[in-house]
Every structure is written in C-alpha cells, then in structure tokens.
Amino acid sequence: MSHTHDQQSEKEDSVLITLQKIKDGTLDPRLIDKDLRKECIKLLIFQGQDLYSIAQLLKRNERTVRRDIEEIRQENAVHPDIELAQKIIGDYIHCSQVRREHLMRLARKTDGSIAERAQADYLAHRIDTEVITRLQTLGYLPLSNSSQIFHHLTQYDTESLRGELTGELTQLQEVISEEPEPDSEIGKSLQDIKQLLIHEEDKSNET
C-alpha cells in the first residue's frame, strides 16, 4: 500500500517538475511523450486551466488537447458496480460518523457557551437525519414499515430481462420454423416479445 502511495507521489512530483520546466522555458513541451502530456493535462485541468491555455502551454493544437482530454475521461469512466457502490456508501457513513462524533465532543465541552453547545448538538442531530434519509433513498433503509430494503439490489435487472426475452424469442422462432403453418398464438407471442425487447432497449438507451 505504501509502495503504491510512494509511486503515486513520485509521479505527481514528476508532473509538477515537468510543468515547472515548461513554464521556465527549460523544457520544450513538444518533447514529452503522450502519457506524460496527459498527466500534465490532468493537473492543469485540476488547476482550472481551460483548453486554449493548456494548448498554448504545451505547444499543441487544441484538437490534440481535446483528444487527450477525451481519452482521460474514458480512462476515468466509472461503470455501475455494486461493490463500488457499497464502498462509497461505507465511506459516506464513516465520514458522517466522524463528523457527528466531533460535533458531540464540542457539545459536551464545558468551556463553550450554551448556544454554541446547543448548535453543535443540533448539527450532530442533522447529520443523523441526513444519513438516514440518504440511506432510505439508496435502499439501505426502508422508507416505511412496509417498505422493502435493498430495492436497488432486488429490482429486476434490465439486461437479465432482455436476455430471457431473447432466449424465449429464439425458442419461438425455432418452433415456428418447424411448423408448415405457423400457429397464430405463437405468432402473437413472438410479436409481443419483440415489442418488449424494443421497449427495454429504448429504456436502456434513455438511461
């Protein structure tokens, strides 16, 4: 873990040194390789630089920088993943607990005024309320006594639905192909499944 952290620190130092040399005029930015250029672009974006400024500094045309930025976005893309969601929720709960405990310590301090202690206690209560509300929204707590928890996990997966429908469609097509005169009921079922597939595909594209 510390080895990875050290490597990351060295990488960041290298980028900072490279940018400083470019700004000082001691390094021609056209000589750095693409990977280092992209790391420089990441840092410059973080610092609030716009596309034109980055292109000017790195002596590259705007189209090249725009293409690098698009590649960076693709590399940083996050895809839906239940483990990632659980980690983020865990971090959120942990940070909320740390803030709440800090506020509760302030509320118990005897050297503070009554108003300050009451405010700290109130804010700690607000954190509790907001955490509960957020966990209800995300499905980790029920919205009411009759509500189902983990609805984010138990909702029918669209991809699974499309897979099942496709399988059923294939079976029906095989049945129809074997019949000299296709059955009207099978034909209707086939059409219904096609419509469902189209509907699910449209929903997937909208999201």
Task: Give a short summary of the structure.
With 207 residues, the protein is mainly alpha-helical. The protein is 76% helix and 0% strand. It has three domains: 2-75, no CATH class; 82-149; 158-206.
Q: What's the average pLDDT?
A: 79
Number of helices: 9
- Main sheet record: none
Structural class: mainly alpha
How much of the residues is beta strand, in percent? under 5%
Q: Give me the strand/helix succession.
A: HHHHHHHHH
Shape: flat
Number of domains: 3
Say how many strands there are: 0
Computed CA radius of gyration, to the nearest angstrom = 28 Å
Describe this structure in words.
This protein has helices at 2-24, 34-46, 51-58, 62-75, 82-108, 114-137, 151-154, 158-178, 184-206. The protein has 207 residues and is mostly helical. It folds into three domains: 2-75, no CATH class; 82-149; 158-206. The relative contact order is 0.04. The mean pLDDT is 79.
